[in-house]
Amino acid sequence: MASVRNYALIYVALVLLATGKFVFFHFDFFTYTMAVGGTLVLAAIKIGLIAGYFQHLKYEPRSVTYTMAVAAFMVVLLTLAAGYSIQ
């Protein structure tokens, strides 16, 4: 299992990644498209950290991790299909 130090470092990383979203949208250096793309990349990193450490997928057998990845992919596909059918 991970130590309290690891959890604290992950928490600090999550706070910094959340701050990145603020930076993307509140400084004029980034265009709107760059800000949205950067926010999506930061969100993917945050999802990986949360799933890996706080949901303990890092310490599970690889089959459980692959099952979760397939489930997440299916959720994305269903979301895209629902968005397409609404249009």
UniProtKB/TrEMBL annotation:
One of the record's GO cellular component terms: plasma membrane
Protein name as catalogued: Cytochrome C oxidase subunit IV
Keywords: Cell membrane, Membrane, Transmembrane, Transmembrane helix
InterPro entries documented for this protein: Cyt_c_oxidase_su4_prok
UniProt KW Cell membrane keyword: yes
Organism of this sequence: Natrinema limicola JCM 13563
Entry keyword annotation includes Cell membrane: yes
Localization per record: Cell membrane
Membrane topology: Multi-pass membrane protein
UniProt main location, coarse: membrane
Sequence intervals crossing the membrane: 7-27, 33-54, 66-86
